[in-house]
């Protein structure tokens, strides 16, 4: 991914750093619906997820996560931008005429071929089932889990790995993504947040920070006890 730095012509471009977006030429049979950003409200209009709302209208791209075109070679035709995720997507033309979108593997270019199946070469972009009864998977958080043998894995890494280097530069760009402003609890009134109130700039007045609903925040585990998937966790993530 190439990072584009703006010249400082306006205050909004002073700290802007965005990726040079790939143009999107979507196929009508692989997109559907006006997929709106999550507005964070339920059917009664009550806020259930804070800091969400607005955002530009989106069309959802059907992504082939199953990779069930077995033993049929496919060729990468385009690499496109997807507004519904950070990663790019690429259009695959299979030998039997099927056309599907997959997540763009890092390093793959237009013209590369991919294939999925049991006995396929271990090559970037190929999808293979797991071997044995189960496999261990280490997540980015450090947690190690057991994965069923019925799952498949794609060789390689998801592209657009430098997305964390982007800097939107202004609040309006974040609003386009459906993310609303975040207000600190310490500047609210005490009726709105446990950290609120006080004369001037005051500390929170508590031993430990709390959520807007009074529960302990910042470090306390919130996972439900005796969850059905506890026996699949071999090593818990670090705090």
From TrEMBL:
The keyword Protease does not apply. Residues 1-20, 189-239 are annotated as: Disordered. Residues 122-216 form the Large ribosomal subunit protein uL2 C-terminal domain. Its main location: plastid. It is found in: Plastid. GO terms for cellular component: mitochondrial large ribosomal subunit; plastid. GO terms for molecular function: RNA binding; structural constituent of ribosome. GO terms for biological process: mitochondrial translation. Residues 40-116 form the Large ribosomal subunit protein uL2 RNA-binding domain. The keyword Ribonucleoprotein applies. InterPro entries: NA-bd_OB-fold (IPR012340), Rib_uL2_dom2 (IPR014722), Ribosomal_uL2 (IPR002171), Ribosomal_uL2_C (IPR022669), Ribosomal_uL2_CS (IPR022671), Ribosomal_uL2_dom3 (IPR014726), Ribosomal_uL2_RNA-bd_dom (IPR022666), Translation_prot_SH3-like_sf (IPR008991). Pfam families: Ribosomal_L2_C (PF03947), Ribosomal_L2_N (PF00181). Keywords: Plastid, Ribonucleoprotein, Ribosomal protein. Belongs to the universal ribosomal protein uL2 family. PANTHER family: LARGE RIBOSOMAL SUBUNIT PROTEIN UL2M, RIBOSOMAL PROTEIN L2. This is Uncharacterized protein. It comes from Populus trichocarpa (Western balsam poplar).
